[in-house]
Amino acid sequence: MIWLVVLLSCFGLICANEPLNYKVKNGRVIGGSDAKPNTWKWQISLQLDLYNEGSFSHICGGSIVHSFYIMTAAHCILSSDVSQYRVVAGEYSLFEYEGSEQFTSVEEIIVHPDWNGDLANGNDIALLKLANHIYDNGYVEIANLPYPEQTLPHGFTCYITGWGLMDYTGSVPDKLQVAPLDVVEHAVCSQPEWWGSIALKTMVCAGGDGVISGCQGDSGGPLNCLTDGVWRVHGVVSYGPAGMCNQSFKPTVFTRVSSFLDWMFSVMD
Q: Which of 45, 66, 124, 259 does the annotation list as catalytic?
């Protein structure tokens, strides 16, 4: 078990780390492209002022699931001090103020009660209660969620969005990125040459072609899937391989939202 913890500390490059001193380079979700402005309206940037200097850095993504609540990954919570966080909704370019943004502080952090810091155990999900509600300014939208226990078939194409690194050298995009990822069913993703036993049924694997993937900074962000004619957030970015994020047989792994709806609604109610 100690070996697994050490292993995951390396695999969890998609985990949030202390904010980098980001410099603008030509980065993107690996294999992705600039998203069309004003499209993925439920995507937010979770930002942290780790040293209380009044300077916030993007650390994770997230999804608007209620006017007062954001869904993100539990491993994105680097501090218990709510004053160190802010949520930016309506964001597109991280390095420009475009007038579409809503900056909101966090009132309460609610991490799933079964999250223990071990990615292999799953439950990598958290809700952030906002100090002020997010309102409809034409650039934000509450995400649609899947049905309880809803799963996706092998090969189903979804889309990851975020401001994650291009590679492990620290390149980040200015504009929101989007990339297609094909779902890898649990029976495949849990095979030894893929993620093996650390791929749980409460997770969604997507990608693994060695070309397109999520990366550090995408954590907590959505896996967007068009099901039943509606875009729904089926996953929350949880983990991926260390080093280069786009490795063959190592898809990006997401917390499966449909497995946690009862808990989410109990918190938001």
A: 124
- Concerning whether 219 is annotated as a catalytic residue, the answer is yes
CA distance 2 to 18: 24
Dist. CA 126–CA 109, nearest whole Å: 7
Average pLDDT, the chain: 89
- Among 75, 112, 186, 234, the one annotated catalytic: 75
26 vs 6: CA distance, rounded Å: 32
pLDDT at 39: 96
Q: What is the DSSP secondary structure assignment for residue 35, as one 8-state letter?
A: P
Q: Which CATH number does the domain 157-258 belong to among 1.10.10.10, 2.40.10.10, 2.40.10.120, 1.10.1040.10?
A: 2.40.10.10
Catalytic-residue membership of 75: yes
Q: Which residue has the higher pLDDT, 251 or 27?
A: 251
- Beta carbons within 10 angstroms of residue 168's beta carbon: 13
The yes-or-no answer on residue 124 being catalytic is yes
Structure tokens at 15: 């985990």
CA dist 181 to 54, 89, 158, 249, Å?
Answer: 36, 24, 5, 13
Tell me which of 45, 100, 213, 219 is the catalytic residue: 219
